[in-house]
Every structure is written in C-alpha cells, then in structure tokens.
Amino acid sequence: MLPAVIAAAGCNVILGLDETQRRDAAGVDAETDAPKQDRDRDGVADEQDNCPDIANDDQHDEDRDGRGDRCDNCPHKENPDQADVLEVNSGKTADGVGDECDPYPSLESDRLVFFDGFNKGTTDWLEQRGIWAYEGDRLVQSDLDARDAVYYVKDLRLATVSTQARFEVLDIDPVAGEANPSRSAGVVFRFANDNGYVCRYGFDPKSGGGEVHQLRLMRRVGASDVPMPRPIGTLSKGMKIEVQTTFRVSKGFLICVVESTGLDGAIQGQDPALLPYGSVGLYVHGIVAAFDYLAVYDRGGPGGGQTDPD
Ligand SMILES: [Ca+2]
Ligand SMILES: [Ca+2]
Ligand SMILES: [Ca+2]
Ligand SMILES: [Ca+2]
User: Where do the domains of the chain lie, and which CATH numbers do they carry?
Assistant: First the structure.
C-alpha cells in the first residue's frame, strides 16, 4: 500500500497548487517566453509590487511612502529611506523597527506585534462598545452619545507595551448638565481583571463657565484619575491627535504622550499595582472619532525576559 500512498500524496502536491501558483505556472509572456516576475506570488508583478518579497495582495500603504505596510519598518510613519541605524550607532544590533517609529530607537529588541491601518473592513478584535465601523481606511466610532466606547485588541500578554495611534476628532457632544460631562479619546490598556489605564486627551466643563482641556492618565479602577493631569491646548473638531503610550508593566510605570498641531504634552505615572499583562484598545467618550491606525510594540514577548529600559 505504501507506494500508492506516496503516489497519492505526490498527486495532491500537484493538485494542491493554489490559485496564484496556477496563474504563475501559466503566466508566461507569449512573445519572450519569459516568466512574469512575481517573487512573492501575490498576483502583483514585482515592478508594481510595493512589497515584492512579501505577499500583500491588498498593496495597502498606510503612510503612502511607497512601501506596503507588510514590508515597511514604520508602516504608519513616512520613512522612504527605512532608516534603522540608531541602535547600531549605540553599539547595539538593529532591531528591524525603523528609527522614525521605534519606541526605544537606541535600544535593541523592540518588536512590532500588532498593526492595523483599518483598511481591511474585517476585525478579529476582542470586544467593542459604541458604534465602530470601517470607513475609507479608518475606524470610526460614530455614536456621539457613547460613554466609554472601547475597541480591544485580543490579549497580547506583553511585559512592556508601547502603542502609537492617531485619530481625528469629527464631532464633540455639546456639554450640558450631566453627571459625567467629560469628553475624551485615546488609548486604553486593560488588565486581565478588567482594570486598566487610559491615556487620553479630553476636557471637562469648568465651574463658572469655560472648559478645562487636559492630557490625562486615567486609572480605570473605580474611575479615579491618576493625579497628574496636564493642561494643554483646546480640543476642536478636525484636530488630528497622535497618542503614544508606554506601559512598563514590570516597573509599574506608565507614560502618556499626545501630539497634535497646536498642542502637545506628556505625563507619566507610577503604580506598583500593575498586573503582568493585558490588552490594548481604542477609547472614546462623548466624541465621534476616526482612527487612522494602531501600532503596538513589545519589549520582551510573552512573560517578559528582555531588559526593561530605565
Ligand atoms: Ca507583494
Ligand atoms: Ca508605507
Ligand atoms: Ca513608513
Ligand atoms: Ca530600531
């Protein structure tokens, strides 16, 4: 029986050619007899392929720098030169994360573990609250009345997590006499027990009129703020805001950075009660926001193990 099994297996290998391979097998230029060059067999010829060695049939290029997301060492930061030299300049080994987006550009071993340019129209996210939909290359939370709308990436179990996200403020719920009148958006880090932190930009009405605009690191345990909000510029419609966070879980250390034209700020907090891992999400409260991307970086992988930077 053995030869028959082998013959059947061999037959399956031939019949098992996928659609791309069949097309390639037949893809011979009639005039030159030269095979079409499509090294990664994603159906896009090499000279047109923005990642000629990595299959990426969607050809998505979030930052429009000519490199497809799949082979761009900063998929969301324009860096056509793909520079990744700052570790080497510090006597270390380049880690493959471009200088332009590397959370620790002179320390090796950073790793991009999750990137979503929100172009796929499908999701394998863990959980959502609010009304989230893919609209033209962005993920939009469209419920103006939503309080604590979130979108969670599935559990990442990372020891030190850095996130980079950008969103546009499309609308803001007018502040009226309500119990929780704050408006904000940002990135949330959730621990396994459902507690966590939000790095967010937002504002509250000021008693006696006006608004207090602040960058906040908000602890979600009992919804109490980490007591170091930092006043920054005024949130307005059309503003594009970049949020960067680092959660150094092993040291109970959190950094929250917000950048936008006309405003920026950074705060950090420390909490010895941080748990060893969690998931990352997008967070919106009383705002319609369109997220361009979310990138998540790790130093250490599951359970940690890498040296945590000081
Ligand atoms: Ca390709
Ligand atoms: Ca690119
Ligand atoms: Ca890039
Ligand atoms: Ca790097």
Answer: 1-53 (no CATH), 111-298 (2.60.120.200)
